[in-house]
Design brief:
By secondary structure, the chain is of the alpha+beta class. It has helices spanning 12-21, 28-33, 44-51, and strands spanning 5-11, 23-24, 36-37, 58-64, 72-76, 82-86, 90-91, 95-100.
């Protein structure tokens, strides 16, 4: 199972640091786990609710999964669902879109249209 576009939710400051460094090495949880966590379009809303509830100033990164090569693995996680995990730094050229991920008055994230491929 592969998807053309996968997603990463990240704080704006962390992404700005990645742009300055020329590479995204992941959030603290990614570094602790030894891989960068991603979600598919079907998974990303639940990821936002579970791990980023009420957080503002977030960005949604759209990543070309095919640009990541064999370091991208789909592995079981929440409820046995297969999640994309990157066992390398994320090269910035693989990021095809960066969009704000604001929250509404109820604290829920407002998602742009997602690529379901």
């Amino acid at each position: 199972m592969t998807h053309r576009i996968i997603y990463k939710i990240t704080p704006r400051a962390l992404w700005q640091q990645a742009e300055a460094d020329g590479v995204f090495s992941g959030a603290p949880v990614d570094k602790a786990d030894g891989f960068i966590h991603f979600s598919t379009a079907a998974q990303v809303r639940e990821t936002a609710a579970k791990h980023f509830a009420g957080q503002n100033d977030l960005l949604l990164l759209s990543i070309d999964a095919h640009a990541l090569g064999p370091t991208l693995k789909y592995e079981p996680s929440r409820g046995g669902d297969l999640f994309p995990h990157l066992y390398a730094d994320l090269p910035l050229h693989a990021v095809v879109k960066v969009e704000p991920l604001p929250i509404n008055e109820d604290g829920l994230h407002i998602f742009p249209e997602l690529n379901q491929e």
